[in-house]
Structure formats: C-alpha cells, structure tokens
C-alpha cells in the first residue's frame, strides 16, 4: 500500500527588534519567494526552486504526497496573532481533511515569534500533536538560523537543518528530512539528544565558507549514516526570546550514541568561541579603503538586511559614499516606494529632487536629500540567476535605477517598492549594470550575498552602518535570554 504523507510549510524569521509586523497580507505577498500557496499550487509553484518543500516533494518518489499549504513572509517584527491563528488553522484543517496519513512533513524556519508565542513553531507542532496524537511520524526541516526549543525537539520525530550559509542546500535539507521521515515510518527508531549553546554568534560571523563554521559543519558529514545523523543551528540573534542561540541535535539507534554525538558538537562550538570573525568597519573608513583598493570591493550593509528584518532604507553607507566622493559605486537595494513612484512619474533621463530612504523612523536615520537622475524604471519582476534563489523571482514592485552626482561622487542606486535582500547579481543586471565592472558594490545583506558576489569580489568588508538588524550584539537591549547578556560575541 502506498504511503500517504501530508506536506505543508509556514516560514517566518522574526526580528523582535524590528518595526512592523507580519500579518496575512505579508504572507500572501510574493517577494523573493512565492505568495501563499494552496493545494496543488504548493507543488507547481515551487518545483525546481531551492526550497525545502520543493526538495521534499522531489524526494517523495513512490509516495503519495498531499500538499496542504505553503507560505512565507519577509523577515520583520512579530507575526500577528491573527495571521498565526489563521495559517495554523488552515494547515490543521488541511491535515484533518487529507484522509489517513502515514506521516507529516513541515517546512518551517525555527525562529518564528508571534505576538502570543515566543516559540511559534513549537506552538504549531503542539496544535498538530493535540489533534493527531503522539504516534504519527512528524518531521520538520529548519533554517540554519533556527532558535530551537526543547518543545520543538520533543514534538518532532525528525529534525533536519540547513548546513550552509548562504543557504544553498535548502532543497537538499527538505529532501534529507523526507528520507528520514520515510525511515521513521518504515519502523526505524532513533533516540535524540539536544544541546543548547550558552552564547550568541552574530550572523555576519556565521558564514559556513569560513572558519570556524566550515570545520564545524564538516564534522556533520562524519556523523552521517543510515542510522545516525546530526545538525547544528547557529541561531537567529535578533529574536529576544529564551531559546535564542545556537544548538545541536543528534539522532542515533541508542541514547548513548546520540548523547556522544551531541556532546562532541557542543564542545566543538564552545571551543570555537574566540575564532568567530565579528569585526565590523565604520562606513567612512570602509569607503575610503574601497576607493583605494582594486575593485570590485563589496561593502556589506549587514545591519540593514531586509532578509533579517531590516528596513532596507537606511542611508549610512550611501552618505559615506557621497561624503568620501566615491566614484563607480553601485548600491542595492533601498526600499522607498515614494521615490520609486516619483522616478516612474518623471521617466528615464529626467532629473528630480527628493528625499531617499530613512523613512522607517529608526533612531538617528533621516532621508538623503539630493537630485536624482532616472536611468531606468521597471515593474520590478526580476528572475534570479544565482544558486541561492535561481529559478525564482524577486518581486521589487515599481522600481528604478537612480544616479547621484553630488560633491564629486558618482553613485548609482537600485530603489524598490518592496523590501528585497540584495543577494543576486540579477538585482543589478536587470537595470543594465555590470557589477564586475564597479569599483564599489554596496549590498544590503548579511551573508547570503556571498554566493553570488564573492566570486567577482577582490575584497569584502562588513560595515557597521545603522540598521534594525543588530550585529553588535553587546549593544542590543536583550531582556529574555536564558543566559547573561554578556554571553554574546561582540
């Protein structure tokens, strides 16, 4: 008899320090990923994408899959109670109407915080277990930045986690999760060990292509077999909740083996504490050095990353470019619907005065007032070309390329109506720019940009410009961590 597995996804990475919430409108809206999908749309609209649910569906050969729902919202402040309750109810209703099930697979993030729940994923899993009981096999795939709670581990039979940052293995993680779920359904029993790490690692220091993360994640390969597996979550630092921080999870045929695997990884992370590169350069120094260096030099605006809840409209690096008279510099992507609308109104070749960015009411931020030449206008539907989101589309909304020639500077800025992380060359190329020819490339991204931009960069610098996604963690106003606030990497 063919196995029947229900699949669903509900993703949000919550920045409790950021303005704005994620309501139903945000989950229905397409951004870097599709909008809310129902039923067979889950299959047709994610096929070929680097998404966990797409990987799981592809791996489910010989299995009847019942797609329920998939949705995600751009990282922001809390998920509203109304949105969480409605989406959770839609998933539960779909599961109840699916008929007899052999198992359930969920594509989750692991760092969702709602207005009511510090642990959104734990609350969702609890709701499902309350209706389906403790025996139905339930597997979840999680983001590398998951803040994993003991409740999540207790309620899920299988947990798999991305092993790359930039997240190039999202689909592979979903496939791995589905295969482990099938083993569970077929009768393979595993014991689980879970450990939480007592400090935070800033996201710009979590690059798995560099030490010590590279070596930590390589250890996972040595622990992988038909009957054992382990994963590391490095945590999402902008969620001020008790379970914020790194953790490790291991599965094995015996509790002793699982404990040994988890302890080995836990001690390895502790021993690596002083090896994480947390350095940030101030904007003026970074721009001055970039102008003297061999280009392209990538300046990463790590604290205004919309993919981590940033507003994507701060102007710190842009001001430094102008003040330092930078030339042949490009910047993306500033979210400013008003300026984008003005550019569309005036049209290519026109010049208009306006106030760009700085409108999200962040402390110390103000718009940049200048004259802008409109180079290109666009509807903002851009097909990604890189490994991270290749096959998908960025939905910028009405957007444009502006040139700023002021104080001897020459800077071109991509402006959008929707918050979109600058992690793909296509976000510049769509507007006629060739990033490899630029002296300075400024990206509002923390690490994901590296997959596309590192191959063309002569140098990469993480910049300490203001934003709603704090990377200098010792300056953050934490009140709910399970350890002392001083237990962060500065």
Q: How far is the first residue's CA from the last residue's CA?
A: 55 Å
Counted beta strands = 19
**Helix percentage range:** 25-40%
Name the average pLDDT. 96
Q: What does this entry look like structurally?
A:
- With 490 residues, this protein is of the alpha/beta class.
- Strand 5, helix 6 and strand 6 form a beta-alpha-beta unit.
- Helix 3 (52-59) crosses helix 7.
- The longest helix has 17 residues, at 255-271.
- Helix content is 27%, strand content 21%.
- The mean pLDDT is 96.
- It has helices at 24-28, 41-44, 52-59, 81-96, 120-132, 150-155, 170-185, 213-222, 255-271, 283-292, 316-323, 337-346, 426-429, 450-453, and strands spanning 4-11, 37-38, 64-72, 103-108, 138-142, 158-161, 191-196, 229-233, 247-252, 297-300, 329-335, 351-356, 368-378, 381-383, 393-395, 399-404, 411-416, 440-443, 459-462.
- Strands 12-13-16-17-11-18-10-19 form an 8-stranded mixed β-sheet. It has a 6-stranded mixed β-sheet with strand order 2-3-1-4-5-6, with helices on both faces. Strands 7-9-8 form a 3-stranded antiparallel β-sheet.
Fold topology:
Elements: E1 4-11, H1 24-28, E2 37-38, H2 41-44, H3 52-59, E3 64-72, H4 81-96, E4 103-108, H5 120-132, E5 138-142, H6 150-155, E6 158-161, H7 170-185, E7 191-196, H8 213-222, E8 229-233, E9 247-252, H9 255-271, H10 283-292, E10 297-300, H11 316-323, E11 329-335, H12 337-346, E12 351-356, E13 368-378, E14 381-383, E15 393-395, E16 399-404, E17 411-416, H13 426-429, E18 440-443, H14 450-453, E19 459-462
Parallel strand pairs: 1-3, 1-4, 4-5, 5-6, 10-18, 10-19, 11-17, 11-18
Antiparallel strand pairs: 2-3, 7-9, 8-9, 12-13, 13-16, 14-15, 16-17
